[in-house]
Amino acid sequence: MKEIDWPALYRELVLIDNVVGVGRGIKMVRGESTGQEAVVVLVRKKYPRSDLARAALVPKRVAGAVSDVIEVGDIRLLGTERTGEHRPARPGISIGHYKVSAGTFGALVRDRATGESLILSNNHVLANLTNGADGRAEAGDAILQPALYDGGSRDTSVIGHLQRFVPLHSQAVPPLCRIARTFEALVNKFIGAFKPQYRVQVWRDNETPNMVDCAVAAPVAADAVAADVFEVGDVQGVRETEIGMPVKKSGRSSGLTSSIILATDVTLRVEMNYGEYGVFADQLLAGPMSLPGDSGSLVLSEDNFAVGLLFAGSEQATMFTPIQRVLDALEVAF
């Protein structure tokens, strides 16, 4: 490809409606590289050529080279829309227990008994991954918005206090029986005589899977929170799910994203902490639509009915729990 004055070419092409940029690239055909150098023209949205007026068409050749069109949407600076302080705080933004790096404010729900408004998210976001007996969290702990990783502090960022949670359990747990504890003590006494820096711990398999990862916190004031989900709007109610159903979520890290439900009734092992795993049963699987920090996001249908609570994911998939089970476990409602 010959030398190109890219700023000048940009000024020329940006006169075409929908064009936002230009650059050097490789021509792609149906997602496959042709290996041919091309002038790539960046557009907000890609339309079929047959739907465009002649003046809105990108030429097939630009500056003596073949052209290729890439859809990029509206490019903007990645600021603190979701990771900064918000008052009132809305679902879809940064939140977390004062010991937790960051998660997502999932939804504003109400206590079925008192009608009190409560902040909904995961146990591992609002309650520091506690099983209820490990000292990781307890009722009354400070909840920060923004979360610790995003600059929150207990001095200036408390949005609420942990009210209740469903305990989370690892795949392996310390034994309760006296025989196992006695065996552990004897082995460590023997090892201590030769290698005092080492210690053996006995574990037993936990046969009870986790069914939910959820917790609620009481806001410090009614006007400190709002119910409409960031970039989504108000939750319209609750809906059952089915395979192939389109879903979306509004999360602290990846914003507003969408996918489809790929599987239901899923039982799988999830890494809960470094080297610590838990088994979760009867969960829902969607395609990739989340990043670390999106945990706690409310998953919704296209028309804003709540269908699940996101708690885990990878680059290939997203896991969430049916929302009605979450609501019932915490005795809350929309």
Automatic annotation (TrEMBL):
SUPFAM superfamilies: Trypsin-like serine proteases (SSF50494). It comes from the Bacteria. InterPro entries: Peptidase_S1_PA, Peptidase_S1_PA_chymotrypsin. This is Serine protease. It comes from Anaeroselena agilis.
